[in-house]
Amino acid sequence: MTKREAIAERALSLVGCGYVYGATGWICTRARLEQQARQYPLYAPMILRYGPKWIGRRCFDCAQLTREAAGAVGFRLPSGSSSQWRDAQAWKERGAIDTLPDEPGLFLFTQKLGRMTHTGVSVGGGWEVDARGHAYGVVRRRIEDTSFTHWARLAVDYDADAEDPNPPPEPGGRTLRRGMSGEDVRALQKQLLALGFDVGKAGADGIFGRGTRAAVVQFQKSSALAADGVVGPMTWSALDGAKNA
């Protein structure tokens, strides 16, 4: 079984589990519900209203479900959907939902007011699995019927055997290309600007668009690198060298 298959299979195996805010995969009991309601008073009404239907089942919240899916291939994600998204070392590739490849094992995120508020896992064929909410539990849905705005690929070899060890993080950061966004894109843009390369009218906006790609291509040409507009280990290394020159 490949890593992509293992991630999707683990996510699918959890369909039908319950949702309780802050749940990490434990079996739901009344005592647990009361404990969660005390710990998270903002969510207490929902926990106490819908929680009893999940008694006896494993329960997750959205980010703990994606942690469980990543754990199927020996990868440990942080807790919380925003923390997961911000962990640049966790991802090999990220992008807007309209660039989502149709393949299993990718991680999906919903951005609202500048932060990620929900997350799930693609399982192929246009479907995903997520811990939808207290009233729904863990469900399988068409991605087109969800609110997801972004996607991310773990920094693992998706075609490797699920039991194979994962590679160490790439030097410099994740590979960046057009269509991706994030603080590391913003940092790339600032570095290019400091070196005299124009990234476009929007400046360092954290979005890898046409202007940023053009700037990367120009930098790569000036550094005798393959001018493909993709910021991988060799381009990161050249940028670091130029910064320290």
Principal-axis shape equals elongated
> Strand percentage, roughly?
15-25%
Largest sheet report: 6 strands, antiparallel
Category from helices, strands and their pairing = alpha+beta
**Mean pLDDT score:** 92
Order of helices and strands: HEEHHEHHEEEEEEHHH
Number of strands: 9
Estimated helix fraction? 25-40%
Low-confidence parts: none
Radius of gyration: 20 Å
Q: In whole angstroms, how far apart are the ends?
A: 46 Å
Number of helices: 8
Spatial order of the strands in the main sheet?
4-9-5-6-7-8
Topology (SSEs and partners):
Blueprint: H1 3-13, E1 18-19, E2 24-27, H2 30-39, H3 44-50, E3 58-60, H4 62-71, H5 81-86, E4 91-96, E5 107-112, E6 115-124, E7 127-133, E8 137-142, E9 150-154, H6 183-194, H7 210-222, H8 233-244
Parallel strand pairs: 1-3
Antiparallel strand pairs: 2-3, 4-9, 5-6, 5-9, 6-7, 7-8
Helix pairs in contact: 1-4, 2-3
